[in-house]
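Action item from last week, closing it out:
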Amino acid sequence: MNLNALSRTRPSSISFSLSLDAYFDSGCYWTAPGNVNAFSQMVWSACNSDNSFLIGVAVGTAFHVSMDANHYYDFSIGYTNPVVGAYKANVADGKDKGVDGYERVDSQGLSAMTRTIFEGKYKDGNVVKFKFSFSAVAGQEPLFIIKQVLV
């Protein structure tokens, strides 16, 4: 029986591929996240662990953004759906382990932008500078949005 299911949508407005690392304080994936292609979205879900009772879900997932062979950026997201207590969600900027996202969960969620300015090139060779913007909204179905913002 799935008492505390929750699902996440992570729309990506970034032109890089993502890979991940997961941490569970409680629960397990119902549908596991995977790598996501540029400008795509990822939907996954978590639930109580098998043979658990009244525990809920508490998860952290770290993402590795590969910009090219030598440049990358790491961040972690955390989210909870306890049987008793508040829904929580957050993003840990610059962190490469799922536990980092879990340890920063907050019922208020988050909206933030990286301090680092990244640089890339368009196909025509013109330089572009950008930051990453993060939004996390806590709830039964938390929402995380990651975007590239030109600076």
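Closing note: Confidence is low (pLDDT under 50) at residues 1-13.
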